[in-house]
Each structure stands twice: as C-alpha cells, then as structure tokens.
Amino acid sequence: MAKPRLPQPTAGELEILRVLWRRGPATVHEVRDELPRGDQLAYTTVLKLLQIMVEKQLAARDETERTHVYRAAVPEARVKRRLVSDLVDRAFDGSAMELVMQALSAKPATPQELKQLKALLAQMEGDR
Length: 128
Fold this sequence. Notes:
Blueprint: H1 11-23, H2 28-34, H3 43-55, E1 59-62, E2 69-72, H4 76-91, H5 96-106, H6 111-127
Helix pairs in contact: 2-3
C-alpha cells in the first residue's frame, strides 16, 4: 500500500517541525522559546499551529500528562524530499540539475560540501 500523501507544511509549521526534529518532544512553551521569533509570538498562536499540525498528521500530541507534549510525526528527510520534489517540478520543469546549478550559483558550496557532493555523485554513478 502506498504511503498517504504528506500535506505541505506552511512556513510556520516548518519552523515548528525544525524545532521538534532538533530537540525532540517538547511542550508549547519549549517550542515557542526555540522559534526564531518566539518572543514575538503568543503562546496561543504556537498552540493553534501545533493543533493544526496534529490534524494534518505532521505532529503528534502526548496527552498523558497535564502539560501536553508534542513531537514531529513525520521524518525530516521525508518532508525535505517532498519540498524539494515540489520545487523541482514547479520552478525547474522537473530538472534536478537546474535546481543544483541555481543553488550553487546563488550560494557557493564550502570545500566540505563539495567533497560530500562529489562522494554522492560517485555513489550514484556506482549504483547504475
């Protein structure tokens, strides 16, 4: 059976997912404190976003304690693959090479990143 289609997270939901992926399960207060502009966000705003994310199955809520704890319900790699796939299709007419060329021209890679990229390309060529 195919996996159900993952809903596209909004920019705010993606910020919250990054916090949950980085730190693991967290309360609303903990998530809010780690958001880039968390000091400007109301607790209820973060709570509402997390509730929507639970409905969308992007996050899960543990209700066993008085203070609910939230965790990411989808793996980081899966969300990123989906986002990149959508971007490649919409902006680069399905060409992964065009995406990579644009990305490298917009922000040059570090020597370490180039080394990792070469290793990935060598691995991909070896898989053929």
